[in-house]
Amino acid sequence: MADSKTAEKKPNALQTPLTPSKDLAAIVGADKLPRGQVVSKVWDYIKAHKLQDDKDKRVIVADGKLKPIFDGKDKVTMFEMNKYLAKHLK
């Protein structure tokens, strides 16, 4: 049972507050946020600005604020998005 107590003490990667880059802060704000909240706020932004592809909702169409986060790509899938977000969190 000692192993489960050790696991409980490890910080959860989704709950550890991280600082967003300048580009990401333009969408989620400059305050430290847990990774889960960052992803949630980015999704809120995507939905509010209707940035999902009409035919395939898994595809995100980058606007001026998302393009620098997505390494200049015009479109990324929702599965790729977390890889790009990770580069903008410290």
UniProtKB/TrEMBL annotation:
Pfam families membership: SWIB
Domain DM2: 13-90
Highest taxon of the lineage: Bacteria
InterPro entries (alphabetical): SWIB_domain (IPR019835), SWIB_MDM2_dom_sf (IPR036885), SWIB_MDM2_domain (IPR003121)
Full protein name: DM2 domain-containing protein
